[in-house]
Design a protein that fits this description.
Elements (H helix, E strand, L loop, with lengths): L2 H31 L3 H15 L3 H5 L2 E7 L5 H14 L2 E14 L2 E16 L2 E16 L2 E17 L5 E4 L3 E3 L3 E8 L9 E8 L14 E2 L4 E7 L5 E11 L2 E12 L3
Length: 261
């Protein structure tokens, strides 16, 4: 085959791949545009109530029998959310509908919510950035169940908080070995760097109780470890914290641990 013929085949293959990607994207966009008003309306109203810190109004869109995959019922969810709002002086919620499907009178909606906010502790300001992907079961205009699919939260403070890149799987089998690579991306110069990691099961108490880290002095600009997944299946938070003289950054990611074969 000549070089020209091979080149044409490559261009054709890329063109076909691009066309297929565009078609998939168009179908997804049309699916979201055709989402029922019941789904789009409840998500919009939830964002409005959350941004206005109107807990009673927000609670109207959650069933009295509401439960979460983290073991929260409606009462515990309200208490945790109220405490979270008290901690942060300003918060912004923005929810995007990723996909939906109908099952009779029930809707299953997958969403991504981005949350930003600030918290004052003494003279320090903590900046929160969180992205949560979840799946909601909606019946009769109320959410009855919620499952968190992915979660990543960053809290930073100081004039120059470390910028972190972390390589971490979001799904592991019980007792499986995995690599944890957490790197500070910018040059540290003469700065001393301290860091730590902490693994804890997702629980109702974990939403409101601060984590206790055992900091260690780091010889390099990051943490590089071979770790072992918990022996019990469930959802866990794995947090990494880096502290330098000019700032601090904590990055927390949810890990789903499933039972190994």
């Amino acid at each position: 085959m000549s070089t020209k013929s091979w080149y044409r085949l490559v261009i054709l293959a890329l063109s076909i791949g691009y066309q297929q990607a565009v078609m998939v994207s168009a179908r997804a966009e049309n699916s979201l545009l055709s989402a029922p008003a019941a789904v789009k309306t409840i998500l919009t109203k939830i964002d409005v109530a959350a941004n206005g810190r109107k807990l009673p109004e927000l609670s109207r869109y959650y069933s009295p029998n509401f439960t979460t995959s983290d073991g929260l019922n409606k009462t515990a969810w309200q208490q945790s959310l109220g405490q979270f709002w008290q901690s942060y002086s300003n918060l912004s919620y923005a929810t995007t509908l990723e996909s939906w499907q109908a099952e009779g009178n029930t809707y299953i909606a997958t969403t991504t919510t981005k949350i930003t906010g600030t918290q004052k502790i003494d003279s320090r300001t903590l900046n929160l950035q969180s992205t949560i992907q979840s799946r909601q079961k909606i019946v009769g205009g109320q959410i009855v169940q919620q499952q968190v699919l992915q979660e990543r939260t960053q809290i930073s403070s100081g004039a120059k908080p470390p910028t972190i890149e972390i390589n971490l799987p979001d799904r592991l089998q019980t007792n499986a070995e995995y690599s944890l690579d957490a790197i500070v991306t910018e040059p540290l110069g003469e700065d001393v760097l301290m860091g730590a990691t902490l693994e804890q099961p997702v629980s109702a108490q974990g939403y409101t109780q601060p984590a206790n880290y055992k900091l260690e002095l780091l010889a390099a600009g990051g943490l590089f470890k071979i770790a072992r997944a918990p022996g019990k299946s469930g959802d866990y938070w794995l947090s990494t914290v880096f502290i330098r003289p000019a700032g601090m950054t904590t990055l927390t990611q949810r890990i789903h641990v499933i039972k190994g074969k």
